[in-house]
Each structure stands twice: as C-alpha cells, then as structure tokens.
Design a protein that fits this description.
With 246 residues, the protein is mainly β. It contains no helices and 21 strands.
Length: 246
C-alpha cells in the first residue's frame, strides 16, 4: 500500500510529483501532478467541491493532476493505493471556501466510482463499471462501454456515444439527454423535475415504458412488449422523448 497526504503549503508527498502555486487577490491556486506506477483496476474519487474529469487511456499507469483553489487555510488532499484500488479524497477545513478539481487518466478497463458534493463530473473512454453521484452539478458521459449508474440531486446528465450493457440514470431536478451508439439491454432514466431524451439505435426493438404527470411523451423507436431490450423513462414534470439516434 502507498499513502500520500498533505495540506497545501506543506506539500503533497508522492513520487513523480510536480506542483506550482499562484495567488490572485487573496484566492490562492495550486496544481499538483503525480503518476501511480502500479496497475489500477478501481478508481475511487471523493471530492467535497470541484470538477472531476476522468479519461481512459492506453497506458497501464494512472496520472492525476489536482487543481486546488482556496481562501485562508488550504484544503487537505490524499491519494492512497491498496490492492489495485486508487482512492483520492479532499476536504475543506471548517467553514473555509475551497475547491479541489481532478484531471485523471487511467487504464480504459478501470472501474470508476465518483462522489462529488458540488461540481461537474465528466467520464469518458472507459470500458469498466462507472458509478457517479453528484449533489449539485452536471454529469457528462462519453464513449463508455461498461455498465453506468449516474445520479445528480440538482444538475443534469448528458451522454454521447454510449455502448454499455445497462444504464441507470437519475436526476432529482434537471434534465437527462443521452445518446447510445449500441443497443443496451436495459436503460432507466428518471427525473423528478426535468425533461428526458434518450436516443438509441433503431436496429432492434425495445420494450418501452414511459410515465409523466405533467408533460408530453414522444416515442419513435421500434417497440414491442416482447422485446428483450428495455427502456424505462419517468418524470413527474417534464417531457419524454425516446427516438432513434442520428
């Protein structure tokens, strides 16, 4: 197991670390980059506030850049590896204002789990299981081949070139707009308040179920109650569109 942690200003420990700092009008900015040489099969990110961008790459190594901004006391960041799992976390002290953003490149087969309190999360070019939860912010998904489970309390979920076996998408307040490049076995998209748009290849039939209390429903894909592939879309307030991908 390797462990690296630090409070900004004291530095972050880790091999291959590169960092820089800048202060503008009392708001301080700091960037730290490092590489995990051991093979990572699972990536876990727990971010209190900040944007997270994860991309699958061809290398067996995982590279991380932390983008840190703060007033007053610096946030604490940590990265830890154990049994092929890399865990990244950040914490703002007390009532201080800070953000910690991450830009990460990891092997394409990596399983990814992200929890973000406030900020946008983008995940792309991966083949493993992807699980994302954001309290407030946008989730962007692209070129994912593994199962997807994405939720946002307030924000949106956008996706393109998706080819997972299954996808479960939920937003409490906000829209869902996703496009699939391959037919999935099961797609579930739900919002409490917000429009839903699901676009899928029209090469197979789908068992489509839609529910809305206030809003219109438009379904233009081939459908059959006996189909082995299903699409379920539900919203209390908002329109639902299930249409062929362009």
């Amino acid at each position: 197991m390797t462990l690296a942690a630090g409070v900004l200003g004291a530095g972050v420990l880790g091999a291959g670390l590169a960092s820089c700092a800048l202060s503008i009008g009392g708001l301080q900015h700091h960037t730290s980059s490092y590489t995990i040489g051991s093979h990572v099969t699972t990536l876990v990110v727990s971010d209190q506030a900040g944007d997270v961008h994860i991309t699958g790459g061809s290398s067996d190594t995982t590279s991380v850049t932390e983008h840190i901004s703060f007033h007053g006391t610096a946030p604490t960041t940590m990265h830890r590896t154990a049994t092929s799992t890399l865990t990244l976390s950040s914490h703002c002290p007390g009532a201080e204002t800070c953000t910690v953003g991450y830009t990460i490149t990891t092997p394409r087969t990596t399983t990814v789990r992200v929890t973000d309190g406030a900020g946008s999360v983008s995940v792309g070019s991966l083949g493993g299981l992807v699980t994302v939860h954001v309290n407030a912010g946008r989730i962007s998904l692209s070129s994912l081949a593994g199962p997807v489970n994405a939720t946002s309390n307030a924000g949106s979920i956008h996706g393109q070139s998706l080819s997972p076996t299954s996808a479960s998408l939920h937003v409490s307040a906000g829209e869902i707009a996703v496009t699939f490049s391959e037919p999935a076995s099961a797609i579930t998209a739900t919002t409490d308040v917000g429009a839903i748009s699901v676009r899928v290849p029209n090469t197979v039939q789908y068992d489509v179920t839609t529910r809305t209390t206030v809003g219109s429903v438009h379904v233009s894909v081939a459908r059959s109650a006996a189909a082995t592939r299903s699409i379920t879309a539900s919203t209390k307030t908002g329109s639902i569109t299930i249409a062929p991908a362009a």
